[in-house]
Amino acid sequence: MNRFRILTALLLSLLVAGGIAIAQRPKENISPGRHPNLAAAQRFGEQAYNKVIAAQEANEWDMGGHAQKAKNLLEQANNELKQAAEAANRNKR
Q: pTM for the full model?
C-alpha cells in the first residue's frame, strides 16, 4: 500500500511537470511602436496566463483541467494577435 502511494505521487508529479514543459508562456513579440494596442493586448494575455499559473499553484493544480485549457486558449489568442500584427504589416504601404 505504501509503495502504491509513492508510485502514484511520483506519476502525478511527472504528469504535472510534463504539462508545464509542454505549455509555453505567451511571448511578447509585437512591436509596441508599430502596434501599441495589439502589444498591450499581448501583455494583458501574458498577465492573465501568469494569474492562471498562480491559481493552479494555490489550488495544488487540482482544477479539473480547466486552468490548463484556459492557458492553451491564451496561447492561441497570443498567436492570433501576432498574426494580426503581421497582417497589418503586410497591408501597410
A: 0.68
User: What is the per-residue pLDDT across 65-79, written as a single tens digit (0 to 9) for each?
Assistant: 999 999 999 999 999
**What rounded mean pLDDT belongs to the chain?**
84
Q: How far apart are CA 82 and CA 88, in angstroms?
A: 10
Tell me the one-letter amino acid at 59.
N
**Residue 71 near residue 16, CB atoms below 8 Å:** no
CA distance 35 to 83: 12
Scanning the structure block, which residue is given the C-alpha cell 493586448? 41
State phi, psi for 40 to the nearest 5 degrees: -65, -45
